[in-house]
Each structure stands twice: as structure tokens, then as C-alpha cells.
């Protein structure tokens, strides 16, 4: 995943937008995409902040190892797809 833009850049972009500079000019000045600009504007309007969302290093499991073991012991012939359906996850998560 790409590194997040600095808060300083985000703030300068929003200040430029609020001062009346057109989106096209902002895109050329700061070399960012229209999607990025629109996302920052939307986030600023919704939260008053331009800081990036916190990134997590991993996703929490939707079920415990104990729950999986219990399911395996109770249903030894279940397929991977059936286990995934039981826990409401994709088969890669089982």
C-alpha cells in the first residue's frame, strides 16, 4: 500500500480549495488525482480533519481457534467451504 500523503499537504490543498482555487488548478499545483481531492474535501466536511485514517497491521479474526477446533471435532467430514459458510467468512480465512 502506498504511503499516505502528509497532513501538511492535505491542509494546504484544503486551504487552497476553500480560498476559491478551482479543482483543476489544485490538481495541477499539488499533483494529486481528482479522486484524492474529492475524498479529502468530503472527509474535511464530514469530520473537520484531513488526517488519514489509522491503518491496522492486521485484521482481527472473526472466530477463535477454539471455535474452529470445536467445529472440526463436531463435523469432521465438513468441507472447507462448509466451514467458511458456518463462520460467515471466505474459505481463505478458515
TrEMBL record:
InterPro entries: Homeodomain-like_sf, Transposase_14, WH-like_DNA-bd_sf. Residues 4-94 form the Transposase Synechocystis PCC domain. Pfam families: HTH_Tnp_IS630 (PF01710). SUPFAM superfamilies: Homeodomain-like (SSF46689). It comes from the Bacteria. This is Transposase. It comes from Candidatus Electronema aureum. The lineage of its organism: Bacteria, Pseudomonadati, Thermodesulfobacteriota, Desulfobulbia, Desulfobulbales.
Amino acid at each position: 500500500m502506498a504511503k499516505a500523503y502528509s497532513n501538511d499537504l492535505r491542509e494546504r490543498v484544503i486551504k487552497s480549495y476553500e480560498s476559491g482555487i478551482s479543482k483543476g488548478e489544485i490538481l495541477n499545483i499539488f499533483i494529486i488525482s481528482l479522486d484524492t481531492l474529492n475524498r479529502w474535501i468530503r472527509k474535511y466536511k464530514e469530520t473537520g480533519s484531513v488526517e488519514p485514517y489509522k491503518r491496522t497491521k492486521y485484521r482481527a479474526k472473526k472466530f477463535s481457534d477454539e471455535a474452529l477446533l470445536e467445529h472440526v471435532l463436531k463435523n469432521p467430514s465438513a468441507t472447507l467451504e462448509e466451514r467458511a459458510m458456518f463462520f460467515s467468512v471466505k474459505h481463505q480465512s478458515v
